[in-house]
Amino acid sequence: MTESSSPKPVLTVEGLRRTYGESVAVDGLSFRVNPGEILGLVGPNGAGKTTTLRSIAGILPIQEGRITVAGLDIDIEGHRARQHLAWVPDDPQPFDSLTVEEHLELVAGLYGTTDWKRRREDLLESFSLKDKRRALGGELSRGMRQKLALASAWLSEPKLVLLDEPLSGLDPRGIRTARQAIQDIAASGVAVILSSHLLELVEQLASRLLIIDYGKKTFEGTLEEAHTGFEIPMGSSLEDVFFAATRHEAGDKPG
Amino acid sequence: MIGIPSKGLRLMMVLELRGYGRGLARRLKTPKGALFAFLGGSLLGLWIFILASDKARGGLDSTSSFAKPEFVLRCAGLAMFLLVAISAIMTRGINIPPGKLDRVFSLPISRSDFLRYRLWCVVGRTMAGAPLLALLATTKTGHPLGTLLAVPLFLGFVSVVGFFCSLLAAAIEGSRSFAAMMQRLRQLGKYAIVGIAILLVMALLSTKLPDLLPQWSAELQLYLREMITAQTLEQLVYAGSRPLEPFVRLALAPGLAQSGLFLAASLGTLLLSVELVSRTPVDFRELAIEGASSAAKRIRSVGRVGRAASAGKARVGLWAVPHLFGRGPMGAVAWRKVAAIWRKSRGFLGISLFLGCFLLFAIRMLFGDALLVSDNFEASAEELILSGNLGGCVLSLLGTLYLTNGLRFDFREDLEQLDILRAWPVAAWRIFVGSLLPQVAAISGILSVLLLIWFGISAATGSAICGLIFALPQVVFAWVAVDNIAFLFWPVRFIPGQSGQLQHIGRGLLLSLARITFFLLTFGASLASAGGTWWALVHFGDPSDAALIGWVVLVGYCVLLAANAGLALLGGFAFSSFDPVRDRAL
């Protein structure tokens, strides 16, 4: 899917820059995501992926640049913009005094979701959480927490889903369920940003790639375009593209 | 030697102590660390100076039997002894830092030797904080040296007993039949506490509301007053504190010569207790492993939600949590907090209410009708009404301070989930208000019940108590909001047991000053407006008393409301500008 085929992007990021003291985490990043698109966000450790996602989610204040979600500026119309997005962090921490089903009830209340009871049951079923519906957040394993975070995101009926390492901690069955769920939600017209170190997964799911390194965009486009751009043989894997796009040892400055 | 760990473990203790000292020195080298340490040290110095001045003035008046140094010492010792034992039974098991557990358990040492080492770590840590308490105790006793020696030894002994209770409770908890019996007892205990509380409240209110309550409630009050006298209380305290005899005698020894014998007895008691506990035939490894993970979690949560809330385990919610604040986005935010308070802290709420009732009951028993009736001509009816109303104010103030400190279901609890909260599609001020409302409601509710009981046992007027109950939610909100705004602007967590206590005291001093200033400005604005209204009405009009009071209360309340609205907006700003990456412990 290309930008020209979708006139109204769900997300636009323009010149995003974020620093932590002296260190620059994201440096002038710009990109767009269209409805129904799955954007694979990849990069080495410390490249600025999570900072980018947290800035889009409105968690980190914007220092420089502009982000709009569904046409609303995240910095100016914060909570109205957040109504259209769902954020799944890499290590979800559910509230330890709410049960699994109460977490979903909370999300329904916060987002004003209609018909939430039926949808809650469907999600508990599809994410294999039915047996754990009365378990408190603090009692859940890593994988269960991840499933709960995904179910909560799905329940909020977003236009944009931000997934930071969504499959970590899941067992093989959980991975298959989550993978299918991501494909299904994208097929229903929801834009997805998928950040992961599991390059095989990104390759399978993403319709477009955004590779960043040291906070800067090193590539944006489809996998085929990457083959041409980095002059590597057609049919090479995303892993080959990744190494071509981030050609330096850990700790080196980009050349 | 009795009670002393082996050479290898003694070396480990010395090295750990050296490491701790190195950490302290490193903190003092940074300008911020040095500044906060200076402030903390100054505060402690000031406190010691005040204690010394109190001592120079002669301390307590020892003519009353309740103010006798021996009685005060015994009461304090007994209370501490019971508190430590109860809290040890509640927490159970041995607390060993998770990182240390694997290292220590693989060492070639005996079980009892390990326990000795652990006991001395606990005793040493307790005794390190003892000098301040000892200084406080010297203001009440005869010879300072005896007291300065007795207090650390007593605290060490108490920590050994606490350790033993904890070990024993964890060991017998493993027994299924015992667990079932405890479960039944716990349930019965709950009903018994509620029943006793209702009876006591009825007995207390029987004087002021004789027409509403049955005759037997007044008879119950009379019977209790005959039974509970100062003499029986004194006898109970003396009998209960017999096991602490060597320490009490050492603290009260009039001179050096007399101290020697009691010092030997106290030291012997401590060493013997360490040795006996180290020989307890309990396999503690499973308990320690289990305890290490839960303790690590608990210690982390202490920094977030306060001691009272962190002490209880979250219970599986069999009861649905009601949507007390509506079903909109702000209602949902508040609903989450209601669930947290209900599931984690209902015990604390119940105990607080029970303690409050018990305190009022004790006041009623000790003072009799003197709070209500001016038949002895020592106080006029007006003075009694004034003291009753002031008592209500003091009760509200102290209750707010105690409950807000123990029940911290605010943003401290949410630090690890702040990412999630900030991604919610709800205006920041609504998240701020919604997060604090349940805590405010719970505290106001408890204090309202206590104020109603106070109304029953004192000469406080109905209008004053109603006014207080009406104003409580606003005042509590202002206090909690100011506290949270300060926290969101300067988010620092201090976990008890970690190094940097002195810096923490210094930083706490600055933060407390900021909070108090902020709160006084908020509350002062309300009072000033009320005062201004009073002055204007009296000087420019001729209103009736009822109209005057009505206008003053209305204006004061409206200004408090406006100030709270301002605090809500400021809190929203603090929440939205909170940078999660900035949060770090000291």
Helix proportion of chain A: 25-40%
**Count of discrete alpha- or pi-helical segments spanning 4 or more residues of chain B:** 21
Q: Give the neighbour order of strands across the main sheet of chain A.
A: 6-7-8-3-9-10
Radius of gyration of chain B, taken over Cα atoms and rounded to an integer in Å: 27 Å
Using the alpha-carbon principal axes, give the shape of chain B. Answer: globular
Mean pLDDT of chain A: 86
Give the total of beta strands of chain B: 2
| Main interface: chain pair and counts | A-B, 37 and 35 residues
Strand order of the largest sheet of chain B: 1-2
Please, what is the average pLDDT of chain B? 77
Please write the string of helix (H) and strand (E) elements of chain B: HHHHHHHHHHHHHHHHHHHEHHE
For the biggest sheet of chain B, the summary is: 2 strands, parallel
What is the strand tally of chain A? Answer: 10
Given helix and strand content, the structural type of chain B is mainly alpha
List the topology elements:
The complex is a heterodimer of chains A (255) and B (586).
Chain A: E1 11-20, E2 23-33, E3 38-42, H1 49-56, E4 64-69, E5 72-73, H2 78-82, E6 85-88, H3 100-111, H4 116-126, H5 142-155, E7 160-164, H6 172-187, E8 191-195, H7 199-205, E9 208-213, E10 216-221, H8 223-229, H9 238-245
Parallel strand pairs in A: 3-8, 3-9, 6-7, 7-8
Antiparallel strand pairs in A: 1-2, 1-4, 4-5, 9-10
Helix pairs in contact in A: 3-4, 3-5
Chain B: H1 7-29, H2 31-57, H3 69-91, H4 98-105, H5 111-128, H6 130-138, H7 144-173, H8 176-205, H9 215-227, H10 230-240, H11 245-252, H12 256-278, H13 285-305, H14 307-311, H15 329-367, H16 381-406, H17 418-422, H18 428-457, H19 462-489, E1 492-493, H20 501-540, H21 545-576, E2 584-585
Helix pairs in contact in B: 2-6, 2-20, 3-7, 3-10, 5-7, 5-12, 6-7, 7-11, 7-12, 8-9, 8-15, 11-12, 15-18, 16-18, 16-19, 18-19, 18-21, 19-20, 19-21, 20-21
Summary tags:
heterodimer; A: 255 residues; alpha/beta; six-stranded mixed beta sheet; 35% helix; disordered C terminus; B: 586 residues; two-stranded parallel sheet; 21 helices; 77% helix
